[in-house]
Design a protein that fits this description.
- The chain is built from no helices and 13 strands.
- The chain has a single domain (25-135), classed as Sandwich (Jelly Rolls), CATH 2.60.120.260.
- The mean pLDDT is 80.
- It has 140 residues and is mostly beta strands.
- A hairpin with a 6-residue loop joins β5 (66-72) and β6 (79-86).
- The strands form three sheets. Strands 1, 3, 8, 10 and 13 form a five-stranded antiparallel beta sheet that branches.
């Protein structure tokens, strides 16, 4: 017996939006967006869209300004990073491919888009959105 829901196994997308621009060096993670999930999902990939682009200055690529995708277990507040994208020079409207470790969530967990701690400074007011690809988990 199988599922007859047309979403079964289909990759879907959600958009996480940076609520504020980041304009300085980050000493600790700064959350750009957080969503509590209403159903279980497995995240497959993410891309970063630059609403307002910026040039990262003052750091090598290994310590450059990073955008992160993280999981927060429901009710704990603990955040675990599972995806990153390193920001170099990005024009308004450009897209940067993020790298993720495929990660599963259950209903009640949070997915978090963040600016990660680093030594680089975005020259300008960097503002992002993330397009997250996922598959809904079905149980039965």
């Amino acid at each position: 017996m199988g599922y007859d829901d047309p979403r079964y196994g289909v990759v879907q997308r959600m958009t996480l939006r940076g609520k504020a621009a980041q304009t300085s060096v980050i000493g600790a993670r700064v959350e750009a967006d957080r969503r509590t999930l209403m159903t279980g999902i497995t995240v497959k990939d993410f891309n970063v869209f630059f609403v307002d682009g910026a040039t990262t200055t003052g750091a090598a690529a290994t310590t450059a300004f990073k955008v992160g995708l993280a999981k927060s277990l429901g009710g704990t507040g603990a955040v675990t990073l599972f995806g990153t994208a390193v920001v170099g020079t990005q024009a308004n409207g450009s897209v940067l491919d993020g790298a993720v470790t495929e990660t599963s969530f259950v209903a009640g967990d949070d997915i978090v888009l963040s600016y990660e701690a680093g030594t680089a400074l975005p020259a300008g007011a960097l503002q992002i959105e993330a397009d997250v690809s996922y598959v809904e988990q079905f149980t039965g």
